[in-house]
User: What shape does this take?
Amino acid sequence: MPVKDYLRLRFLPHIWCPGCGHGIVMSGMIRAIEEIGLEKNEVVVVSGIGCSSRMAGYLDFHTMHTLHGRALAFATGVKLGRPDLTVIVPMGDGDALAIGGNHFIHAARRDIDLTAVIMNNRIYGMTGGQGSPMTPQGMRSTTAPRGIADAAFDLVELAKGAGASFVARTTTFHATELTRMIEKAIRHKGFSVVEVMSQCPTYYGRQNRLGNGVEMMKGFRDNTTSIGSKKREARPDLIERGIFVDEDRPVYSPEGLKAD
Amino acid sequence: MTSERPNMRFIQGNEAIAEGALYAGLQFYAGYPITPSTEIAEILSRRLPEMGGTFIQMEDEIASLCTIIGASLTGLKVMTATSGPGFSLMQEAIGYAVMAEVPSVIVNVQRGGPSTGLPTAVAQGDVNQARWGTHGDHAIVTLTASNLQDVFLMTVAGFNMAEAFRTPVILLFDEVVAHMREKVVVPGPGEIEIFERLRTSVPEGTNYHPYLRREDGRLPMSDFGGVHRYNVTGLVHDMWGFPSTDSTIAYDLLHHLVDKLENRADSIARYKEYFTDDARVLLISYGSSARSALQMVVDRRKKGGKLGLLELQSLWPFPAETVREKCEGRTHILVVEMNMGQICHEVKKVVSRPERVFLANRFDGIFISPGDILRVLNMVQGKGV
Amino acid sequence: MDKEGKVVINREWCKGCGICVAFCPEEALILDPEEKAYWAHPEKCKRCGLCELRCPDIAIELVQK
Ligand SMILES: Cc1ncc(C[n+]2csc(CCOP(=O)(O)OP(=O)(O)O)c2C)c(N)n1
Ligand code: SF4
Ligand code: SF4
Ligand code: SF4
Assistant: This one.
């Protein structure tokens, strides 16, 4: 089926700005679901609040657009209520790691079978460009005109440390890789985290003179590399992409661990 | 003893809540420990899985309520339980359940507040928080009880109302009721009517509108994972559940959310009357306070005093008609509660002679006694202290 | 690659971000004067489908004939 067939057409075109990366992630997620061959009725998408979270409404699955930061908690209830369903949680970086940070680490600790796709645009898009826990130190936001003082999280390290059994990172530029990683994440039984470096040209790009969507995606191309790549010897600042953790563990259930 | 029924049990208040919930069909519980409600979680962590249900301890009360809302959408009957500080954390998600119309039951075993307050002491200070804790205009159902048989019954009623009205229901109990022990007769199956979820009859392949009301105002649901796919949101939404900023849609939705409960306040109203027929002085009370109020009424009756008690078991929607009617013609009305007058204020608003309404209260963590109430009555009747 | 396929642009959804244009390996796309993507050089197009994968607006599709 074409991607369009998974969308609620009457609500499109979507609200995202020209060049925003979130639409690329939505498209990749749909391709992954198509690739796995899941029926629409088998998929639940639970999102929080943010530009990225608007994704839920456009998708022709069972969808829930909830509260800022709380999507993983709602998703936990859906998953435990219907363990046979595939539950995917599209999140913003602020949504997942600031207000929702506690739910994030606990979902990872439980290793509950959910797939969190975190659109890391390093900013709060929906509220107009304030800093997030993923905004690198020194970068500008509307609440940090002289540059952000707080250090950022390393999302991959955080997810690993908290216990997620699948952790991956990619970008909106690497669209084929994006689809493949989301596919693997959904197939994985356990808490899967896919960090997708996504662009917010409207706020993050503009405030930090990173250019439009195209320029920001070139940045993802030029400033990332595959895990273990030799390129990092010359340029240690390159951000690694790939699958960092992919472990088979017994499937979580609150009544105790069950064999798969 | 032959008169004792086999299903008569001597249990604690929190256990009566857990048993009532199980009787009503509870299938999913998520919670976070807090005094004085913790026993509910402890009991259900054992009982619920035995009965095929799911129990999970979450990372906080926010997560607890969000999790049960998610589970409710898969078609399960759900509950969480907490006390003041946890109830404060739940307010945003209560609003979500109101807006998205998700059946859910939230127990608040009240303790002294504000803040961490008096964790192990009794209070009834969350009455207005139950009503107005979440932001925005809305309506809510709040039930309470003063003895454990009624705690059981009100818990069942709460589950039924959650299904009937597609709403969160708050069971507002208090420390004294939750921690005392009393006999409870657990009714046999079928003795109390249990409301099951109203599910849509729209067949697969036909458009199902999750937020299109039937003529009777009810909205049949479709479980997540079923044949109908739709959107659920806390934003103002159209009949598809899709966000909308259309003022007509917003007006209509808010009216619906409030009217579906406030217009049925009379049928939701639950109360008990003691000696009200000829009472000149009417006490109005609820929860554990009503125990002392009743004791005081009984004591005075023995001495010929014409006192009566109206015990409220539903606080919200406020049973205004009932209260107005029952207060007619009394010389004095004494509202007995363990806060600074939260229900007293409501009573004054609805009666024809508000100057006859007085407050007998405590809010210091000490259980209000019949003597405390009598002192206030003597004072307002000009008999001195 | 199937040279038979066609690149179809949904002008109602295209927001003119230029992502498909910038990253088309064959320079087969342009932004037209109305700032909508336009498949200007079908003869150069390799039907790789990258434009479709990267379009944030699901506005460009490689339709197989
Ligand atoms: C409890 C609460 N606090 C604050 C907000 C306001 N708010 C909405 S979205 C958002 C941040 C969005 O940023 P992010 O999660 O990174 O997603 P993006 O919009 O960038 O995709 C904030 C602060 C809210 N909706 N709810
Ligand atoms: S504000 Fe930023 S994140 Fe939000 S839609 Fe626009 S570009 Fe995307
Ligand atoms: S299919 Fe490939 S070559 Fe053809 S227009 Fe799209 S990106 Fe360019
Ligand atoms: S990537 Fe999509 S939205 Fe952007 S210009 Fe191309 S077709 Fe239009």
